[in-house]
Amino acid sequence: MKSIPEGWKLEDNYLTREIEFKTFMDCIGFINELAQIAEAEEHHPDMIITWKHLTLRLTTHDEGGITQLDIEMAKKINELINKWKEK
């Protein structure tokens, strides 16, 4: 497996990332865009929303842990995060 993408950390059998948004609606807007990417990739992160804070978790359940698919999805999510930081 390649190295863990920037901003992500390894927790048990998951890659996790915490993101803080300016508003609750920014968080929801981000999730809506992320949902489109996840559907296209057929790889869906676990998402925990706490007001304007989002926790993302990636794992490949069928494989019992983190795979290259999770690494690639984390990179795609990082691209989306960078796009949102520019807003």
UniProtKB/TrEMBL annotation:
Which InterPro entries does this chain map to?
PCD_sf (IPR036428), Pterin_deHydtase (IPR001533)
Its EC number(s): 4.2.1.96
Q: GO biological process annotations for this chain's record?
A: tetrahydrobiopterin biosynthetic process
Broad class of enzyme this protein falls into: lyase
- Protein family according to the UniProt entry: Belongs to the pterin-4-alpha-carbinolamine dehydratase family.
Q: What Pfam families has UniProt attached to this entry?
A: Pterin_4a
UniProt name for this protein: 4a-hydroxytetrahydrobiopterin dehydratase
Q: Which residues form a coiled coil?
A: none
